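U., I forgot to send this yesterday:
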Amino acid sequence: MVNIKTDEEIEKMRKGGKILAEVLSEVLKNAQPGVSELELDKFAQELIIKKGAEPGFKKVPGYKHAICVSTNEVVVHGIPTDYKLKEGDVFGVDCGVYYQGFNTDMAETLRVSNQKSKIKNQKYVEVDKFLETGKRALEEGIKQAKAGSRVGHISKAIQDTVVGAGYSVVESLVGHGVGKDLHEDPEVPGFLAGNIEDTPLLKVGMTIAVEVIYSMGKKDVVYKGHDQWTIKTEDNSLSGLYERTIVITKQGPVVLTN
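Result:
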């Protein structure tokens, strides 16, 4: 069942989303060569608590971290380790904040680089193009999140952008509704299967997490290692992840995590 939020509930999510955006921005600034995934996880948790919120992901049964990390071939749900980031790594951070009874969810991916570094090679050019495509796909998907449209409009916009650039949407992982629970109805795929008219209708007051989950190679994914959380591309190709929590309003989509 889709939960329509009241103005008061949306305001709580807006405040939580602002905290989340600030935290994620600081985490990404610190994602420098030589810094470990666990150090960034600890930093995120301390900052969330300092800002008066709770790490939303730690409320998920069995998960013990404030962030999920997606380094290189890791797609989603990556458990932070003592791995230290290296120049050129593709590093994604997924983070959730729980504030006054409501969750917000957000993710961003970047190419790790020392700000003083001037290294530029063909591989980096290709990676940057890949990441720019993900950002554009997220923007195009969010544009479609209008009352009266359908989830399929979001899905098609993401798919057209990603596939049109020569990459693959990871079809086994999708966006979702978000609110009192981290994962609510409806599912928001990054691809269109079937007819748009058969996908859920978007209504004023709906809050959803729009996600672009994609790879440079094929769409197939598998578990990495034995932690039963970390999912990677089966062909070990690079993966990207972009996500924002938004609310559907009469005036159009409004991003809550900014």
